[in-house]
Amino acid sequence: MDKRILEHYQKTGTYTYAGCYGDYFRSLPDDISVLGRLVCGQVIHRVTLKEGNTNANAKLLYGDMSRYPWYRMRCEDDMLLTAPALTAELFRLDGRGFVKDRRVENKIVVTCRYVSVLMSAILKAKGIPARCRAGFAPYFQESVSMDHWINQYYSKEKERWITFDADGFYEEGGMPLSQYDMPQESFDWAAEAYLATRSGKTDGRRFLYADRLGTCSLPALIRYLIYDFHALMNNELTYSFLPAYLDGRLDRLTEAELQKLDTLAELLLEPDKHFDRLCAFWEREREFRILNSPLVEAYDHLSS
Fold first, then answer.
1. Nearest CA to 12 among 83, 67, 62?
2. Would you tell me which of 74, 180, 273, 286 could form a disulfide with 33, CB atoms 3.0–4.6 Å apart?
């Protein structure tokens, strides 16, 4: 593996910078599966909280949801955007930090992107090249592939990227998934799914973005193509953000705009092979980096 690539993924961005928690992150378990299960035990997914003690939580793997306080937010994604913010709130709720016996009422409610960011932040603090990846998981439901964030870290021992998903106790729940060393084909990578849909080789309606509208097909795939690109550039966007020129019009792009996304997707198929071209795309194609915002419009950015 190119040394420059590994150095890139040892660096942090806004969301994965450990800040004052660097030493604490380094004190956490080095075994990835042990670390992943520990982190998973600190959080509740918003869907798990909504479903209560049914479905994935029928065996109370995630705790007794009836104990979650009625007055707390049902999802804290919009509040806890960065790894230090997630960690600070966990310490506020239980001063012992990341502990196996954290009570349900002291857990935070976040979605997969946040678990992925926290895992990357911890691994980077340990000096391990790590990256978040955004795509779709076909292992939650049979008929659809749900939008999902996972992780990869580079194993010097095995000389390869190892893909893992720390967002649930899947193996304990009986899911047939090698959770901490996932085969390439077990995940629907955003670029592959986008290009297959664009070419008509697959029905894009099976790729679902879990918003209130049930967005699927190209609008969902384009969103996750952008998220995966930003994640590979160490800028793990939250769901509130998109490039401003795409916001509100994912289903109304011109053919020229789609062709530029085609080019990006082709590069993302093999991000290490095309690392230099991806970095050049990141620097050159500014419209992919000027984001929407509730307070700042695209025209407020400098034009030079």
1. 83
2. 180
Nearest partner of 218 among 245, 188, 195, judged by Cα: 195
* Dihedral angle over CA of 291, 292, 293, 295, nearest 10: 110
Handedness of CA 233, 238, 243, 244 (dihedral sign): negative
Give the H or E element holding residue 154: strand 145-155
Nearest to 202 by CA among 228, 184, 215, 221: 221
Distance CA 264, CA 272 (A): 14
Question: Which residue is listed with tokens 């913010």?
Answer: 85
3-state secondary structure 188-199: EEHHHHHHHHHC
User: Which residue do the tokens 């795509």 mark?
Assistant: 135
Amino acid identity at 259: Q
d(CA 192, CA 171): 26
pTM (two decimals) = 0.96
- Residue 9 and residue 265: Cα distance in Å, rounded? 20
Residue 111 gets the label, from left (phi > 0), alpha (psi -120 to 50) or beta, of beta
Beta bridge partners of 185: none
Q: Using an 8 Å Cβ cutoff, are 265 and 272 in contact?
A: no
What are the residues whose beta carbons fall under 8 Å from the beta carbon of 135, sequence distance 6 or more? 147, 148, 149, 150, 187, 188, 189, 190, 193, 224, 228
Longest dimension (CA), the chain: 57
Please give the chain's pLDDT, 304 residues, in tens.
899 999 999 999 999 999 999 999 999 999 999 999 999 999 999 999 999 999 999 999 999 999 999 999 999 999 999 999 999 999 999 999 999 999 999 999 999 999 999 999 999 999 999 999 999 999 998 899 999 999 999 999 999 999 999 999 999 988 888 999 999 999 999 999 999 999 999 999 999 999 988 899 999 999 999 999 999 999 999 999 999 999 999 999 999 999 999 999 999 999 999 999 999 999 999 999 999 887 766 667 666 5
